[in-house]
Amino acid sequence: MSAIAQHLRGTGKRVSGSDRLFNEEKKMLIQEQFEQQDIRCHFQDGSGIDPQIDVLVISTAIEESNIELQKARSLNIPVMKRSELLAAISGNKKTVAVGGTSGKSTTTAMIFHIMQECGREPSVINGAGLTSLQKKGLPGNAWVGKSDWLIIEADESDGSIVNYIPEIGVLLNVDRDHKEYDELMSLFETFKNNTRDKFIVNQGNTLSRQLSQDKMYDFGTDEFITDGVTSSHPVSSNARVGFSGSGFEQKGFSISFECNGIQFHIPVIGEHNMENALAATAVCNALGITTKECAATLQNYEGIYRRTQFKGEAGGVFVIDDFAHNPAEIACAMRACQSVGKRLFAWFQPHGYGPLKFMYKELAENVLSTLREDDFFLLSDVYYAGGSVNKEITSEDVAIEMQEKSNRVLFFPDRKDMLPYLKQNCSAGDVVLIMGARDVTLSDFAMEIFRKISKLE
């Protein structure tokens, strides 16, 4: 929502909006950033809805009982879903739409970074803020460029991905998150069919591979990928993908690998980020940017908000903040951080009772298979944003089930109770990983942990 608001303001539209967390006495940073862009912010009490408004835009999280939605209907103001407006915006642009269960925000950011550095001047509407744009005093998840190109993160969780008709579509992966596999594959197949030109997929993911349009547009993280089997052994040349990553290595907070004879060095962590970079490279090659140019520009890629984001180091203990919130993402973030330190304290706050009920069995399996002998997994109560929900499965239920299989799983109902534990038990060489979504206080909480460990509090 915030990215679309900024994009519309950047193209000259009059924009206002509300958020349940906006506060007049102590303004949120993003509230101040909006006002600096002449985007009017108001309370979610109906006071900002008047007959001068052309359209009310809402997310799928807004219930019919919302006071602003009710007032707009009473004034006969047209109502649009966020995804419908984004589809309308992208319909007037040459669009690159990045889809998949995980990695969308990072890949979108990498494509934008490469194109921007290579003078293509694209626009971007993303799910997370780019550090390079945040340094300009912006939220960082939107930018209005001078060219006709727009890069967007295309979300499948609400089914809206079927609304986009991009020039280039990207499918990073297909994992069970929000929806079952059959429904996801149906959505992504429609996404493919709606793509005007090139559809680029990850050949290293079993399900995304099934929607390949042409292997020579695709990418993969092994040198050779066969139909159904990823192999390190040479096979027939027609099995080779267009953009193949090999020789992955992580040293500290930087990764390196080779793609088509070109060496990449990127200041990020995790093998999943090699996949994201390969996807970005495949897209940019389709736009006439060479692999060598992609590698050169990604050397100064600055990352995005809450994606294995380094928060600080104190006494040899590293604190990292991440948006991971489904089983596959959580396992990826954990593995990335395991390469940084000798011991990992991975904390997760589930982002809703519905998502937890949907994924808790896979969450337990993925975490327990990823934990090393000296690592710990810490769990706290579900983040509850209000509304009518089924609380059938709780964090405590999941923790108890996991503790039956491992004594390395700890439960802290109130996350603040975890602070003295970390302060007492962390030592040089350890990594503390914070994971979760939706809760806007998580980044601040990561800094609170850092201050506690560094004895600043």
User: Outline, from the CA principal axes?
Assistant: globular
**Name of the CATH architecture of the largest domain:** 3-Layer(aba) Sandwich
> For the residues shown, what is the average pLDDT?
91
CATH fold-type name of the largest domain? UDP-N-acetylmuramoyl-L-alanine:D-glutamate ligase
Count of the domains:
3
CATH class of the largest domain: Alpha Beta
| Stretches with pLDDT under 50, minimum 5 residues | 223-238
Decide which structural class fits the backbone: alpha/beta
Helix percent reads 25-40%
**What gyration radius follows from the Cα positions, in whole Å?**
22 Å
N-to-C terminal Cα separation, in Å? Answer: 35 Å
Strand content: 15-25%
The CATH superfamily of the largest domain is identified as Mur-like, catalytic domain
Continuous helix count: 15
Biggest sheet strand order reads 7-6-8-5-9-10
Count the beta strands.
22
Major sheet characteristics = 6 strands, mixed
Structural description of this entry:
The chain has 457 residues and is of the alpha/beta class. The chain has three domains: 2-77, 3-Layer(aba) Sandwich (Rossmann fold), CATH 3.40.50; 84-298, Mur-like, catalytic domain (UDP-N-acetylmuramoyl-L-alanine:D-glutamate ligase, 3-Layer(aba) Sandwich), CATH 3.40.1190; 309-453, Protein-Tyrosine Phosphatase, Chain A. 33% of the residues lie in helices and 21% in strands. It has helices at 2-10, 29-36, 67-74, 82-91, 104-117, 131-134, 181-194, 206-209, 272-286, 291-298, 327-338, 353-370, 395-403, 418-425, 442-453, and strands at residues 16-18, 40-42, 56-58, 79-81, 94-99, 123-125, 142-143, 149-153, 168-171, 198-201, 219-220, 224-225, 230-231, 243-251, 254-259, 262-266, 309-314, 317-322, 343-349, 376-379, 409-411, 430-436. Helix 9 (272-286) crosses helix 10 (291-298).
